[in-house]
Design brief:
- The protein contains five helices and no strands.
- By secondary structure, it is mostly helical.
Amino acid sequence: MTPDIARMKLALWFNEIEQSGFDAFSTIRRTLEVHYDTIINYFNGRSTNAADESFNAKIKDFRRQFKGVVDVKFFLYRLCKIYA
């Protein structure tokens, strides 16, 4: 799917939501409108931030295992050795 087709389909979906009258979809619609450019940008290169999110989850898990960080230099050193 190209960005132009995605833009058209998303616009059509927005119109359907407005015509349906369901208030429950209004919040979702507003969220998608805020992130509209980012969503359409996905269709340019088919890339997501999944790798970044996965790395962040690994960092949080590492911090959780050691119940916080006291020595920041050592934390960064261990993080580089384990996940780099």
